[in-house]
Amino acid sequence: MRIVQICQWYIPELGYQEYSLAETWTRMGHEVLSIAGTQMFPRGAYPAGELAERRRKVPSGRSEESGTDVWRLPSLELRVRSLLSHRLESVVLDFEPETVLVHGVTSPNAVRMARLARKSQHPFRLVCDDHLIGSNMQVGVAGKLFYNAFRRFVTSRLIRSVDMFAPISQETREILAEYCGIPQEMTTVVPLGVNLRRFQRNENERQAVRKQLDIEPDEVLLIYAGKLNPSKQTAVLIDAALSALKGHPDVRVLVIGSGESKYVEDQKHRVREAGLERRVNWMPLQPNADLPRYFSAADVGIWPGTESMAVLEAAASELPVVCMGSPYYRERFGDGAALLFEGFDDMARQIERLVSDPELRRSTGRRARTAMEEIGWDRVAARYLDG
Prior knowledge:
By secondary structure, the protein is α/β, with parallel strands linked by helices. It contains 16 helices and 15 strands.
């Protein structure tokens, strides 16, 4: 099958959905073209200190990126949405796809593909996925105006042309219905997937990383990986880590990620003030391909803030995870596959349970892996093509 996916952002090194779908479909034998902008990532995606090391913009044109076929078009950023150049339609038609997947129901690219689907002499199946959840919606007056305008001027155009709306969760499905006017009977939940080949527990890597970090075999390692900022509740993470460190001399902490220098330095200062800096390791943001090593080395994962792909990847690595009890996580982690919390005190209790009980860590990790096997990328990628 010939497949085009139109991406808001395409960042192979981070292993996000867009790259994982392209890589999986290609491995399954499909011919896949990912179309993205020349801007590599949205404003605010990286702290200022890292921007000098990362290319914000790349040349337009077609090339191979991490084994996938990518066509970069000149682009503009519109409130974290990527508006691709006028050449988008011609690039799609020249490829003659059988399926076109547009990421983002509310992206300008979705409207353009809906129009193209109606006018094209080479029919294709049009799929729109969406990641809207409570934590990433536009809110306030601006949000209300945006969604009202979307329902009034855009929804009917999409409904006429889109063959499948694919929200990533039941929560997303309900948001699309309430705020965007997309009827639930027209939507099919297709969850975010996880790379089960990459993310799995590896005892050799566990020993190697723990030796590298000077962590004893009987010490319990807590880990966090992701952005370090208020939305990810980094300060709350440090509160929980300090509490665990003070109560358990056999606990160590590894924080992997990057954020604005002052914010991160404030958190490091709190650790130093507590006299616990020798038991906390800090590492910068790591490529997605390197994360399995650190998840294998750890004993408990803690994600106190907004939803993150890293949580699914840690769970696939048989790491017991403590994360907030949001609708999204409750949908992903049933039957004790993670320890979900409501508020700081509950989070601290869940961490204490895992730190103190090796068997609970093992059983929760096994259930986590089993839950993630239901959403491996092979299964998820196929669901976009089934309809």
